């Protein structure tokens, strides 16, 4: 079923998800969490990687790039929302290491083949439809330099097959770490590790053990 799906339908899935992030209070609120998220989930996984040319996919208002810019020689910010691209352009104004691309929701057009040393996406792919993730993984194979890595935070919620992300806890899409690995394998990207993580506050009923996954993968030298 996944294999035959029309590109137009997948594109619509991407746009529909993107539309949920128009004018939300998320971006401001999320700024308060990036320091502990970076220390706990992100830095330990990426600290030894090559930051020469980084893609921040679905960057929102740029809170991750604010961290990445300490290490990166070049950062390409991609998002589906014009509003997010504008916010990032304003935030990183005057820093000529940055480039900004508004995507259609599936493509990384505008990024050269074999040019990226680190594909990075945090707190965004968790909402993406599995078909959209599959399309982006094909693009990762194209844009990554041989020897480059990908760090992707995605959903590991498969309790409701076929569900839409906005019906699920923390808006997680119907996805799993096994499926992410399958898509990587199809695109000849090697999974280095999956880190299954819990999400939500233990004090409230918003706590979901194993809800998310961070997958690290490599485009090995060929
Ligand atoms: C929850 S926000 C996270 C933003 C950022 N990564 C952060 O941690 O602050 C999700 C972002 O994904 C973007 N988005 C949704 N679907 C997308 C798609 N198919 N391609 C690119 N960006 C997308 C939204 O516009 C939004 O900026």
CATH fold group: Rossmann fold
Architecture per CATH nomenclature, i.e. the level-2 architecture? 3-Layer(aba) Sandwich
CATH class membership = Alpha Beta
**Intertermini distance:** 31 Å
Q: Number of helix segments? A: 7
Shape: globular
In short:
By secondary structure, this protein is α/β, with parallel strands linked by helices.
Please, could you describe this protein's structure?
This protein has 222 residues and is of the alpha/beta class. 32% of the residues lie in helices and 24% in strands. It has a single domain, classed as Vaccinia Virus protein VP39 (Rossmann fold, 3-Layer(aba) Sandwich), CATH 3.40.50. The protein has a 7-stranded mixed sheet. α6 (130-143) packs across α7. It binds S-adenosylmethionine (SAM). S-adenosylmethionine (SAM) binds next to α1, α2 and α4.
List its traits.
single chain, 7 strands, binds S-adenosylmethionine, alpha/beta, 32% helix, Rossmann fold, 7 helices, 222 residues
Please write out the topology.
Elements: H1 7-19, H2 26-30, H3 34-46, E1 54-57, H4 63-68, E2 75-79, H5 82-91, E3 98-102, E4 116-121, H6 130-143, E5 144-155, H7 177-186, E6 190-199, E7 208-218
Parallel strand pairs: 1-2, 1-4, 2-3, 4-5
Antiparallel strand pairs: 5-7, 6-7
Helix pairs in contact: 6-7
Bound molecules: S-adenosylmethionine (SAM).
The site of S-adenosylmethionine has 22 residues, from α1, α2 and α4.
């Amino acid at each position: 079923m996944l294999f035959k799906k029309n590109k137009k339908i997948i594109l619509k899935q991407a746009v529909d998800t993107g539309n949920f992030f128009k004018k939300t209070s998320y971006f401001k609120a999320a700024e308060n969490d990036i320091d502990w998220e970076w220390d706990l989930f992100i830095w330990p996984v990426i600290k030894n990687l090559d930051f020469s040319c980084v893609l921040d996919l679905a960057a929102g208002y740029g809170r991750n790039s604010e961290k990445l810019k300490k290490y990166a020689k070049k950062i390409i910010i991609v998002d589906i929302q014009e509003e997010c691209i504008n916010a990032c352009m304003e935030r990183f104004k005057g820093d000529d290491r940055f480039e900004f691309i508004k995507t259609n929701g599936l493509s990384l057009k505008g990024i050269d083949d074999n040019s990226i040393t680190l594909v990075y996406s945090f707190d965004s792919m968790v909402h993406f439809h599995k078909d959209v993730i599959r399309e982006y993984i094909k693009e990762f194979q194209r844009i990554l330099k041989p020897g480059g890595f990908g760090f992707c935070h995605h959903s590991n919620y498969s309790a409701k097959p076929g569900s839409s992300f906005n019906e699920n806890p923390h808006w997680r899409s119907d996805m799993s770490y096994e499926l992410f690995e399958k898509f990587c394998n199809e695109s000849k990207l090697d999974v280095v590790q999956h880190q299954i993580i819990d999400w939500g506050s233990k004090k409230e009923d918003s706590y979901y053990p194993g809800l998310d996954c961070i997958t690290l993968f490599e485009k090995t030298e060929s």
